[in-house]
Amino acid sequence: MDATRTIVETVGKLRQRRTAPLVLELDLTEGLSEGPPADPVSALLSMRKARLTDVLSGLRRARKDPRVTALIVKIGGYPLGLGMVQELRTAVVKLRAAGKRTVAFAETFGEFGAGTVPYYLASAFERVYLQPSGDVGLTGVALEQRFLRDALAKAGVEYQIGQRHEYKTAANTFTQNHMTDAHRESAGRIAESITEQVVAGIADARGLDPKRVRELIDQGPFIGAEAVEAGLVDGLKYRDEVYGETVEDGAHLLYVSRYAKSTLSGKLPHPGADTVALVHGNGMIRLGRSGRSPLGGGGAMGSDTICAALRSARRDEKVKAIVFRVDSPGGSYVASDAIWREVVLAREAGKPVIVSMGDLAASGGYFVSMAADVIVAQPGTLTGSIGVFGGKPVVGELLGKLGVVTETVAEGANAGMFSPSTAFSETQWERVNAWLDRIYDDFVGKVAQGRGLTRERAHELARGRVWTGADAKAAGLADELGGLEDALALARRRAGLADDAPVRTYPRMHPLERLRPPESSEDRSAALARVRLEAWGPLARMAGQLGLPAYGPLVLPGHWTIR
Question: Is 282 exposed, middle or buried (0-12, 13-18, 19+ CB in 10 A)?
Fold first, then answer.
């Protein structure tokens, strides 16, 4: 009898849980993962992070789910890229339009520090609450660059670098002691464009005049009471007060990513259904497989991994369109070209390819994108940077100061040309410049071909210049402004699929297949990332500065962080 009563009570609780009102939660304290982990190390490091695709999918489903009554998002200090923030803002605005309550809560938007981008995200919510001790660091956009040429010269290091063209400014850190005119012009326009987007977004969401928002930016940062008075936040509340006001009695709390994965939130796709393939390309672009270093640094987009994924999707009869999500500052020209070729082959096979740009799709990141049928970028995506640079540091003087003697035995006039011990000869510089010219001409030619531009117009837009997504669309380097959900919807329409057609990540793989070596280069497991112990992240930068092999030449100019 007791057992029967227990079963009945359990069933009753499960039924109640299935029908109870839902309040979705999203904790951004640890940030978000852009895509699936590339290897076991990445999987471990991202265990506490929600995945952007899961969050977007969950919020899309929540719009039509009558059980979902509200969304509470905790915005922390972890820096999110502007493109990702705009993706989340769009999803929140659509959820509000569906009649759901949306609440943003933060202990602080910058504790005695910049908080413009986190507040920009929060402004999209119906209600914005701040802990009484918190601040709103709405201070605007600043792009800061450090120049090391004079410091390196004191140490006996000289950089010999060629670039195509004047806006390709990544190497200026090592070759200049100030911003060039082109560098300042490009950086100034990026800051201006981003400010325009932030001001427009805050003004629209908070019901303020854009001119007033600019005044507030100049007056920031604000302590909590000042932020309430200015209309930037709706109240000063602790977490328990926010939840007490938002979560009704009997409601069930559930994280968005869990909600997205639960069978309660939608039907599982049929294994044989026509589908859209989603291929993620994140990080610096390099030859070989994707992966990351256990010693630190970010992940990498390996050409073998991405090419195999695109091939697999192209050959799968059930795949009717491909969405290629790109979030990369660039990297190897040769690796970028290999990925570009697979995008071309997919289009030639009759499968629409839609590129969705994340925070960053510059240089090599644009190279792998430019052959797509449609490029979708966020207004704040940094893209373009169509150009190249290459060269080496010369550390012979430094080594001499340290008492290091270098002797070389070589056969061939240019056998030692890439040694950091000696400078390029005049003849060797000719070979470097021929290499740079060849890469730039190929890059610009393929931009013209892929984007339907004349070569002259493509060169005018190139020259190494970085554009925001909004400016890139105006110039014809991107087609639409939007995010991943927009790209998936567009892919479904292009392929003639239903609005709810399933999306599958490629390559499709059983987890156990990760443990075995591939049988051939066509084997599915050949597309897997592996853990590589190598000079990556900080170690790669150190290696590059010492003239050791690194990944280049296509990179984003400068190391800019927008807060």
Answer: buried
